[in-house]
Amino acid sequence: MPVEKAGRIYKMYARRLEKLGIKTFEDFLYHIPSRYDDFSLISKINRVQPGEVVTIQGTVSEINNEFTKNFKKLQRAEIADDTGTIEVVWFNQPYLTKVINKNDKISLSGTVDWFSRKLVMQSPEYEILNDSPTIHTGRLVPVYPETRGITSKWLRRQVYKLIKENLQTFVEYLPDQIINEHSLIKFDAAIKHIHFPQNKELAEKSKKRLSFDELFLLQLSSLERKLNWNKTLVSNPFSVDKFKNETENFLNRLPFKLTSAQKRVVEEIFKDLSKSKPMNRLLEGDVGSGKTVVSAIGMYLAFLNGFQSVLMAPTEILAQQHYKTISKLLEPFGIKIGFATGSTKTKLKKFDVMVGTHAVLEKGINFEKLGLVVIDEQQRFGVEQRAIIRSRGKNPHLLTMTATPIPRTIALTLYGDLDLSILDEMPIGRKQIKTWLVPPEKRLNAYAWIEKEIKTTKSQVFIVCPFIEESETMQTVKAANKEFEYLQKNVFKNPPAGEASLKLGLLHGKMKAKEKEEVLTKFRDGKIDILVATPVVEVGIDIPNAAIIVIEAAERFGLAQLHQLRGRVGRGDKQSYCLLFTESKNPQTLERLKAMEKHNFGAELAELDLKLRGPGEIYGTMQHGRKFLKIASFYDLDLIKRVRLAAEKIFPDLNRYPKLSEKLKTINLKKVSPD
Ligand code: ADP
Ligand code: MG
Description:
By secondary structure, this protein is an alpha/beta fold. The chain is built from 24 helices and 20 strands. It folds into three domains: 3-165, CATH 2.40.50.140; 241-423, P-loop containing nucleotide triphosphate hydrolases (Rossmann fold), CATH 3.40.50.300; 434-599, P-loop containing nucleotide triphosphate hydrolases (Rossmann fold). The chain has a seven-stranded parallel beta sheet with strand order 10-11-9-12-13-8-14, with helices on both faces. A six-stranded parallel beta sheet has the order 15-20-19-16-18-17, with helices on both faces. It has a five-stranded mixed beta barrel with strand order 2-3-4-6-5. Strand 2 (53-67) and strand 3 form a beta hairpin. The longest helix has 32 residues, at 200-231.
C-alpha cells in the first residue's frame, strides 16, 4: 500500500519518504539500517565507567529546563536506580521536559563522562519504559539512512510497528532445498532481525538472507522477462544473406575498416535480426569504440528489408549529433531520415529512420513498419518506455547501447534478460589519452602548461567541476559558476602583450537547451578555448579539437566514470591529455586514481572499481546500480554467481513453487529494470 493512503500523518511525510525511496509500507521493511549503535550493555548506575557507552535504566527523580551561561537552554535530569543516581543533560531540546516526566521509568543510552567533577550522561538516546521491549536503547539499535525531517528514531518506530503488526504475513516463500543448500535463515526472522537484531551475528545472517532474496528475485524476474520476450514473434525476420552485397558495399564505402570487435558484434546483431523472435541486445562499448556505425549497419539492413528504424538518445544534444552522423552514413543510400525532439521536429511524412529523444514516442509519429529500435545510453530508459517503444511497431528488434562500463557479471545480473555484446577494442590509430594525477602543489604549473598548449596547438580544454551532490542540483551549478569566475579572473587573465586573452565558457545542466546549444556551438567553432562544465559533459559530446580535460576533485568519481569523462577528449587527431586534480592525501585514494594513468579500458576500470571500492564508488559505475539493489552489494561477486546458478536451476520448475511465483509477481518491477 502506498504510504500516503494511510492517513494524514503519512501523507505529510510522503514526499520526504520518497527521497529515501520509501513509497509503500513494504519499502519501510527494506529500508535497511546502514549500521547499528551498540547500546546492548545495560549497567547499574554505580557500575558506570567514564568514557563508556552504556544503557542505564531507572526512575526520573527530577527534570528541568535550565539556561547555560550563554543563554542556551539545557535540560538536566536526575535518574535513580537501586544502586545510586546519575545526572543527565541534553542541550537545546526544551520539549524533553514535556515528554519525560518525574517518576517516569526510563531507559537511556549514551556516553558517560566527567563533567565538573561529576559523572554525567550527555545527550543520550532516551525511551520511556513500558511493557514493550526497548527499540531505541538497551540493545543493538538500527541507524537508518535519514533525510531532512525523517530521523532514525521515527523510522524505528514505524518499522517496529509494521513488523509487529504484520509478522504473520511474512511467509516463507523460498523452497526448503534452497534454504538448506545456502544456509539461510527464515524470511520472517530475517525481516525482524535486520532491523532489531539480538546480536551482530543475527544481523549478519539477516542481511545475507535478504541479499540472497533480492538477487534471487532479480534473477528470476530477468529469466521470466527473457522467456516472455522469446515468446513474442516478430512479424518478419530480416533477410541477411539476400542483402550481402549491399551491406558489404556499405562497409566498403566507410572511410575506415571495422575493428574485429565491431565485425563480431555486427555478426551477432545480424544473427539476431534474422531470427523470428525480436532481438533484445545490450551493446556495451567505451566511448569512441564505434557503436554508432554498428547500429547504422543494423538500420541499413532494416531499410533493405523494408522496415523503419528509430534511434533514440537521452538528450537533445546527443540526438542532434546522431542525426548528423546517421545522415552522413545513410543518406547516400537513399534513406530518408527524420528528426524529432521536444523542441524540434522535421516535417518528414515518410521516413526510413527517425532520430530523436524520447519525444519520438510521444509525438504521434506514424511508424507504419517499425522494425528496429536503437536506444543510446540505455540506463536512462525504463521498462515502461521500452514497452511503449515496442508497442509502436509489431515487436521491433531492440538494440540498446551503453558506454557505461559495467563489468560483465553485473551486466548479467542487472540486465539478465538482455543478450550482451561488448566492443572491447578501439579503432586503430586512436592515440591513447595521456593521463596524469596532479597533486595540489603542481596545480599552477598545470594551468600554465594548459595555457601554453592552447596557444601552441590550438587545442581546446574541458574543465570539469566536481559533483557536489549526486544529481545536478543548484549547489553543483553554483560551484561551477564560482569556478568559472575564479578561473576567468585569477588564472587565465593576463595575456602577454599583443595576444588575445583566452576565452572561457560555462556549461551546466540547469541551462536551457538553447543556451547549452549556443555554448556548445561556440565551443565547436573554436570561439571558446576553455569550457568549464559540471559533469554533464559526461553525456557524449563529440568535439574533435578538444584535447585536454581537467577533472577537479577526481577522488569523488569512480574510475569507470573518470574514464567516461576522459572520453570527451581524444576524439580527433591530436594527442590528448587528461589531468586529474585532487586535494586528497589518502594513499589509497591516490593509488586508486593512479590506475587511470595505466588503464585504458572502461571494463577493466569498472572491475577495478569493484575491487577497490574507493570513496568514488558512490558516484561511479554503481551509481545507477544502487537504485536496483537495496540490500545486496555488487561487490559480492561470489554471492551474485551463486544466486544466478540457483535461479537458473529452479526456473524451469518455477510453477512447482506457488509461494515463490506469487512473490515474484509482487516484486516491484521498477526495482529490477534498467532505468
Ligand atoms: P561511440 O558511439 O561508441 O562512442 P562512435 O560510433 O561515435 O563511438 O565512433 C567514434 C568515432 O570513431 C566516429 O567518428 C566514428 O566515425 C569513428 N569510427 C568508428 N569505427 C571506426 C573504425 N573501425 N575505425 C576508425 N574510426 C572509426
Ligand atoms: Mg555514441
